[in-house]
Specification:
The complex is a heterodimer. The N terminus of chain A is likely disordered. By secondary structure, chain A is mostly helical. Chain A is 70% helix and 1% strand. In chain A, strand 1 and strand 2 form a beta hairpin. By secondary structure, chain B is mainly alpha-helical. Chain B has a domain of 156 residues: MetI-like (MetI-like fold, Orthogonal Bundle), CATH 1.10.3720.10. Helix content of chain B is 76%, strand content 0%. Chain B starts with 5 loop residues before the first helix and ends with a helix. The chains are: A mainly alpha, B mainly alpha. The interface between A and B is large, with 115 and 106 residues.
Amino acid sequence: MPSRPPVQQPPDVRVRTTEVRVQSQAPRRRSPYRGYVYVLPAFAIYFCFAVLPALHTAYLSLFEWDGVTLGDWVGLGNYQEIFQDSILRRSVLNALVLVVFFSFIPIVVGLAMTGLLARFRRPGMGAYRFLFMLPQVVPLVAVGVTWRWLYGDDGLVNQTFRAVGLDGVTRAWLGDFGAALIAVGLVGTWVLSGLCMMLFLSGVQKVDPSLYEAARLDGAGPVREFVSVTLPHLRGEIAVAMTVTTVAALASFDIVYVTTNGGPGEQTTVPGLLVYRLAFSEGKVGLAAALAVVLGCLILGIVYLINRLSRSES
Amino acid sequence: MNTATRQERWSGYALLTVMAIAVVIPFLSVFLASLQPAGTPVVGLTWPERWSWDNYEQAWSVAGFSDLIQHSLTIAVGVVPASLVLAALAGYALGTMKLPGGNAVAAFFIAGLTIPVELIVVPLYFDLRGLGLTNSYLGVILVEIALFMPFSVFWMRTHFQSTPPSLVEAARIDGASSATILLRILLPLARPSLMTLGLLVFMWSWNQFLLVLVLIQDTTKHTAPAGLGFFVGQNSTDIPTLAAGTIIVMLPILILFVIFQRSFIAGLLQGAMKG
């Protein structure tokens, strides 16, 4: 993470601060814990409605429970089942494939565009910025419904292929065994490419322009300049983009639910979808909880890894 | 910065424009479909022969999107003010006071940034059902506040950390209590940060899907995204009405985005960088 610039203070204020601190130290008799009164309400609601349920999920994952009758203790049996059951394993693999489309491609696109745009002032970027951030603010459900229509028999994708004479290629994309997962993945690419690009472009603005001039004077071409000037300055932004997009890929319930609902077959099933299905229509609450824990750990692990790597390099 | 050649500028803008068109076309396709006469088969990107707004009326009253929008607003009106108040209080204490163990508490909040809804929905359903909070907006509101709290606290803490400590110290010398310092001095200065946070929380609340799908099983009480998701399953062939419904669900957030785009974009980018 790039460090924030220190708050500007006129020097005379700073002098006064130290004096004040000396004075106020003496008569202090209030408990230093008093400030926690302010933290308590936020903490209570966060703990009760987010932390406790997460712990409760871990607890439930140790039982075989249908949600109605008494549950049976099965220890780590549910976790064993996740690694043995082909559908459950499949869902985790699908999520990892989605990472390519939600994370890898948007970052590459964003970097390429940034490399192209880094070296000149860009009047009129406001309008572009507005458009590129648009997919970020609308509900993913609406995005999913939109793409469901675009990928449909009479949708824009097929219309385009027909227009260029490729009638043989047209199909119901989301119902196609080979194409469905890629089609869903490309929706993620569409949503997240703009975000990555805007992150990188705002990061590049912090680079000292004279570095680019120096690189040019030294005879560096666009590629060389990108590798030695732009890329090193974007390390923090790339780590952030990786974190955000990977989490979006692994927790991609909304888009998948409305576009394919996991089909055809189990081609596009993702863990979030199975957690919902197992717990609320198949009565396998314990298994659903175990899968949720695996998903949570996967996300936590990846976020930790990305942060660790990006910090140790800098 | 005049190191770029004219050719580079040109190709840069050309590619930007291509990408911008790729972003816009799906929206345009849905919008045009929503203007077609109801019940007709619609193909891809077709300019409607006659602009008809009937589908919006159909979606709004018959398909029940007016109710869905109201439900979503009810939840957002509960979530946004509560999030702002709680986050401002906690952020104030964690950002300006030297609390023993304060950093650990802040880290505990930040750890929650990665909690996906999937991890908590299963027990939430059973626990809240026991409390009578399923099929209730209060249940959704409480969980959403909790879910957005890590970011909210983090955002406000970062804000208060950046205000000059001399302000607080000077007021303390004048005998102001910690509550007075927050209300009279720091909050008026925090207005831009609070506003950005409010917009982000509203957006997250508006867009929340899985949580509502689980906690509100009664489809007549659904929110806009949940209703839209349900509607697709039921009427996937009536494209014009579906398209109108999709536009209706997106519209409130789009209007806010157009008005407050600076806050939104700054919040989304800075929020990502800080988190």
